[in-house]
Write a structure and sequence with these properties.
Residues 16-314 form the NADP-dependent oxidoreductase domain. InterPro entries: AKR (IPR020471), AKR2_Oxidoreductase (IPR053135), NAD(P)_OxRdtase_dom_sf (IPR036812), NADP_OxRdtase_dom (IPR023210). This is Aldo/keto reductase. GO terms for molecular function: oxidoreductase activity. The chain is α/β, with parallel strands linked by helices. The chain has a single domain (3-322), classed as NADP-dependent oxidoreductase domain (TIM Barrel). Helix content is 36%, strand content 14%. The chain contains 13 helices and ten strands. The chain has helices spanning 21-24, 32-44, 60-68, 96-110, 125-130, 132-142, 156-162, 186-193, 223-226, 244-252, 264-273, 288-295, 305-319, and strands spanning 3-5, 12-14, 18-19, 49-51, 77-82, 115-121, 146-152, 168-174, 196-200, 280-281. The strands form two sheets. The protein has an eight-stranded parallel beta sheet with strand order 3-4-5-6-7-8-9-10, with helices on one face. Strands 1-2 form a two-stranded antiparallel sheet. Strand 4, helix 3 (60-68) and strand 5 (77-82) form a beta-alpha-beta unit.
């Protein structure tokens, strides 16, 4: 395992880490025993950072992480998120009292006395512009309830706004072969500010595994079925903002990236890790096999300058115009 510094913090995290939305809920059926086996396997392989949120299974993924990391708080870092249990547009959701309640509830489920990285969970841009939530987080940090804080954002504009606050230590962004815009400005500014970049949706909700046909049917409780067009939350969180059939079509045009790299998923993760500003990538998983598959990305060859140019051209000419989600 390779490790990278999270911005200018004292935390070094595994470059392939994991997100726990899929084992919490909204990705179809789950098996907690299998989830715990997968978490334990990841830890055994050197993964030391996991991302979660209080709304993933209404706190269920936090509880699973508590079981898997019991007695490991000094060597396994956990990032969790808040605000989406309330009305994300209501300023009261970001008040000192409300955020403290969210924080203490997460601490209880995680069975920890301090959160390593506490993130605002994709708030509206108006909340970021108003900015008082950052003062609330400063207070929680002073109280010792959180070690560092960051923001999970939907757009580059939101990310740039967050960089105006000096205590923001990380940005969590959607970034993959279908969502390359953060490379244009945000990454360089984050590096200049000493802010880490955590990449979510690296496989565009599975599109970049190239395993789907256009007539694939997802389970009823899978957000890839009920949020394809942003019916429940930002459309960018599902298939990176592409319609499913268009995404399947575009993924088929990228099959060449798997040559010499095992498969498309490993290649897609490798491309992200090749970007020097990226701290870590956090693919999801449901079982040990998926954890192992994602970890294989560490070993496959990097992309050449010519391959990088070709992928940039593909994005600008074939993909960019189809992306939704205000990114």
């Amino acid at each position: 395992m390779h490790y990278r510094q999270l911005g200018n913090t004292d935390i070094r995290v595994s470059e392939v880490s994991f997100g726990t939305w899929a084992i919490g809920g909204s990705w179809g059926s789950n098996n907690d025993e299998e989830s715990l086996r997968a978490l334990n396997y990841a830890i055994d392989r050197g993964v030391n950072f996991f991302d979660t949120a209080d709304v993933y299974g209404d706190g269920h993924s936090e509880e699973l992480l508590a079981k898997a990391t019991k007695g490991m708080k000094d060597r396994i870092y956990i990032a969790t998120k808040f605000c989406r249990q309330g009305d994300i547009h209501d300023p009261e959701t970001y008040s000192k009292e409300r955020v403290r309640d969210y924080c203490e509830a997460s601490l209880k489920r995680l069975e920890r006395d301090k959160i390593d990285l506490y993130q605002i969970h994709c708030p509206p841009i108006e909340i970021l512009k108003e900015g008082s939530v950052f003062n609330v987080l400063d207070e929680l940090q002073a109280e010792g309830k959180i070690k560092h804080y960051g923001v999970s954002v939907e757009t580059v504009e939101e990310g740039l706004l967050c960089l105006e606050h000096s205590n923001v230590k990380s940005l969590q962004v959607i970034f993959n072969l279908f969502r390359q815009k953060p490379m244009e400005e945000l990454f360089a500014q984050a590096k200049k500010s000493g802010v880490g970049i955590i990449v979510r949706l690296p496989l565009a909700s599975g599109l970049l595994t190239n395993k789907f046909s256009k007539d694939h049917q997802f389970e009823e409780d899978d957000h890839r079925r009920f949020n394809e067009n942003g019916e429940s939350f930002n459309v960018g969180e599902t298939f990176a903002g592409l319609g499913f059939k268009k995404g399947v079509e575009l993924a088929s045009e990228l099959q060449w990236i798997a040559e010499g790299r095992g498969n498309m998923a490993r290649a897609a993760l490798r491309w992200i890790l090749d970007q020097p500003e990226v701290t870590c990538v956090i693919p999801g998983f449901k079982n040990k096999q998926q954890v192992e598959e994602n970890l294989q990305a560490i070993e496959v060859p990097s992309f050449s300058a010519e391959e990088q140019r070709k992928l940039s051209e593909f994005y600008h000419q074939n993909v960019k115009q189809h992306i939704r989600g205000g990114y």
